[in-house]
Amino acid sequence: MWGRAINNEPRIAVKSDPMVFSAPHDRTLLVSRRTVLPDGDGLVIEPASILMEGGYIQAVWPLDLEGSGVDALAVRAGARLIDLGDRLVTPAFVNAHTHLALSALRAAELESATAGNMVERFFFLVEAAMEPADVRAFARLGALESMLHGVGLVWDHYYEGTAVADALMDTGLCGVVAPTLQDERGPRCEGWDVALAETEALATDSRRIARGIFASVGPHATDTVSASLWQRAVEVANRVQIPIHSHLAQSIEEVRRVYERYHCSPTEWLARLGVLEAAPQGLWAHALYASRSDLSLLRQNGHNALVYCPYSQLVFGFPARVSEWRSARVPWVVATDCAASNDSMNLQKELRFVEGQRTVGTVFTPAYERFLETGRLEDAELVWQRREAFHRTGAGGNHDKVGDRCQDVLSRVWQRPGVLHPQFTVGAIVPGALANLLVWDTDHPSFWPGHAPFRTLSMGDTTLAIYAMYIMGREIGVPGDFHRSLIRSEIYRDTVGEASERLGRLLEKYSM
Ligand SMILES: [Zn+2]
């Protein structure tokens, strides 16, 4: 299994087909009595059959339970039949902002780093020492962790973008790869032209596109990228018609530097440069320091969406106030960021915090401060009034019905991030979308009794209830034994050995 021990070569003999896939079946008809389908702005659960071919959903038909049966339907469609009974079928999750390779720095010594700018004081040093083969091995583990949590497509932003794309090919995860560009500070500053050329090559690589690997242009942030590099990034995004994916207003250092240099906020600076209205789509992670005026700039200028990564933001900064994003009518989606800052690539867990934003502010209000001092009933009543006010304007929207709010939250990891790239659709069970699907066992203790799937999926912890997964129409692992089959796959066992060895060497180098 192990190849030459040269540092820059991947050690595992990567096969042409990812090892976590079962053999390809070209034309498959999935049938379930409970399929999550779009219904206007919302979702419904109905009996349906899904025809998958060539990695895409070719057709979705309502299931006529009175009719001639699913076998006849499959024969008519000329497809292999998978009858899932009443197991719930949903889109696989879409994680709109990741750094897969940074899984290697999970639980690293962040205590001292979090005292200041974590990105600069810690990540940049270790990242500078990573070689392409390190990135590929680490990203493979990040990809496998993502798949174990039901994520079928990631928007990844990292150095050595080709190595990230290779890791996606190795594992079978779909992704939009943004090779990180920066020319003012940070690792690989000298190599921005290489990263930009890499971006264009990835964007036009038909072999990778056929495997669900796309590209976006990835400037790092407003304090690490010069005006001229932003302009080059825009030029490539427009010429190749791919989105720009970047961090924005994520740290106080970024805000300070932009104010010192350009006398305006990071968002205003991008608006002045024409970046916000130029690309076919902008995807901006964090925006912790986006004022109401910045939010209105993001809304007015073309196609821009913000990315909320609550658990990562809790650690490296503070969680953004997404109810403001909603009031400003700026589109936004939910993502994990990296395991180095939140210790997990489980996208589902982020959703609970979106709903939790309805109430969490209560304990930081003057009303609560007063209650702490007095302990009086009337002050406790005022605290509850404050909580109710937060609840009405929460991040999940003003939907009267809880079910609608849950659908809204799920849309941030399904259909909304699924339409951000001009080259594909994902995150919805519709013809033409990438065939990325999850099948859930709603009798699993984490999902049972399964009466309100949208609420359970948005508030629960159900990834252990994944019965099967399809990425580009192909079965990942073994249905009914999904998690164990991935953990026992050759690629997992080989990768964990290689990645551990590489990480050991890297940390040795870093501590010297
Ligand atoms: Zn990030």
Detailed description of the structure:
The protein has about 500 residues and is α/β, with parallel strands linked by helices. The protein folds into 3 domains: about 25-90 and about 425-475, Urease, subunit C, domain 1, CATH 2.30.40.10; about 95-355, Alpha-Beta Barrel (TIM Barrel), CATH 3.20.20.140; about 360-390, no CATH class. Helix content is about 40%, strand content about 20%. The protein has 21 helices and 17 strands. It has helices at about 70-75, 120-130, 130-150, 160-170, 190-205, 205-210, 225-240, 250-260, 265-275, 275-280, 290-300, 310-315, 320-325, 340, 345-355, 365-375, 375-390, 400-410, 455-460, 480-485, 490-510, and strands at about 25-40, 40-55, 55-60, 80-85, 90, 95-100, 150-160, 175-180, 215, 220, 245-250, 280-285, 305-310, 330-335, 435-440, 465-470, 475. The strands form 3 sheets. Strands 1, 2, 3, 4, 5, 15, 16 and 17 form an 8-stranded mixed β-sheet that branches. Strands 6, 7, 8, 9 and 10 form a 5-stranded parallel β-sheet that branches. α3 crosses α4 and α16 (about 365-375) runs antiparallel to α17. The radius of gyration is 23 Å and the shape is globular. The model is unreliable at about 1-5 (pLDDT under 50). The structure holds zinc ion (ZN). Zinc ion (ZN) binds near residues 97 and 337.
